[in-house]
Design brief:
With 200 residues, this protein is of the alpha/beta class. The protein has 7 helices and 8 strands, in the order E-E-E-H-E-H-H-E-H-E-H-H-E-H-E. The chain is globular and about 45 Å long.
């Protein structure tokens, strides 16, 4: 199936199968979804660690966690999780000076979405959203499979906010991340069929 040219469908919410998503080179693509939705799985498949990404910079907190594990793994993750998230956002926002870039984020924290929009706007970058829409019970199974389970209270907050976030993306992507120009929603099955994200 042909890829999606953002210029031909700005602001459009898609729900059909695609094997390719295409964006302008000067873009930040925010890959969003509740914890366990499959964001890291998708990124590992499309952008393997150590692979040639053709100039695309990939920011995923899981990759930072993997680098810290040899040093901090003996300490309960809950103790150093806040430091990891702070470091991740500082690194990602600092690097948001040019595209192309893919940023992993749950998108259920309004303050993070505002920061992403603000930083992209300052750098003159386009923002596009790819949202993985996965039911809460399926996402929870994904957490168990990866061996890291989000606290029940936190997961409930993510799940409660997610439907409203999708509604906002349908109405206007810029209500999710200020300045966002498009939003694509993918189910778990559709995400598994996505073959590449390219930047012209």
């Amino acid at each position: 199936m042909a890829g999606l040219g953002i210029a031909e469908a700005p602001g459009t919410l898609l729900a059909q199968d695609r094997d390719e998503l295409r964006y302008p080179a000067g873009s930040v693509v925010v890959l969003a979804g509740i914890p366990g939705a499959g964001k890291t799985t998708l990124l590992r498949r499309l952008y393997p660690v150590g692979g040639d990404h053709q100039g695309v910079r990939v920011f995923d907190s899981e990759r930072l966690r993997d680098r810290w594990m040899p040093t901090l793994g003996a300490i309960p993750y809950a103790w150093w999780r806040p430091l990891l998230h702070l470091t991740y956002y500082v690194k990602a926002l600092s690097a948001m000076r040019s595209g192309p870039m893919i940023l992993h984020d749950c998108a259920t924290r309004p303050w993070v979405r505002r920061l992403i929009g603000w930083r992209a706007r300052r750098s003159g970058l386009h923002v596009h959203l790819v949202l993985l829409d996965v039911p809460g019970d399926v996402a929870r199974s994904g957490q168990w499979a990866r061996g890291r389970v989000v606290r029940s209270g936190s997961m409930e907050t993510h799940c409660r906010r997610w439907p409203d976030l999708l509604d906002q993306a349908v109405a206007d992507p810029s209500r999710v991340v200020p300045g966002a120009e498009s939003a694509v929603v993918l189910s778990r099955r559709q995400a598994s069929r996505l073959g590449r994200i390219t930047f012209d």
